[in-house]
Write a structure and sequence with these properties.
By secondary structure, the protein is mainly α. The chain has one domain. 52% of the residues lie in helices and 0% in strands. The longest helix is centred in the last third of the chain and has 19 residues.
Length: 105
């Protein structure tokens, strides 16, 4: 499975509020990392390497922002606020999976 397909799964991209493939491509670009050979994404020989957890966090926050821009209807109850809360919860789940590093000089 390629990185784009994996990110689609991690973000439930086609569930409301949806993310487009352009959104996902931008998220992957922002989450690009040096590859195992130390090559930066700008290098032509770079092997695509991404922090998928960081991309998923950003994706879920975009979805939360889109949910926040909608209004609950009296007939359906507070659905929008639940979607917003769920998106923020998913962002926290993937944020917790990110590994941090500290440089000691």
């Amino acid at each position: 499975m390629n990185s784009l397909d994996k990110l689609k799964q991690l973000t439930a991209w086609d569930a409301e509020p949806v993310l487009s493939e352009d959104d996902l491509s931008e998220l992957l670009t922002a989450a690009s990392l040096e590859d195992a050979n130390g090559l930066a994404p700008i290098n032509e020989e770079w092997t695509p390497t991404y922090d998928l957890n960081a991309a998923a966090v950003a994706g879920w926050l975009i979805k939360a922002g889109r949910a926040a821009g909608t209004v609950d209807s009296p007939a359906s109850g507070p659905v929008t606020s639940k979607i917003f809360d769920n998106c923020r919860t998913m962002a926290r789940v993937y944020a917790a999976r990110r590994k941090g590093s500290v440089s000691i000089g």
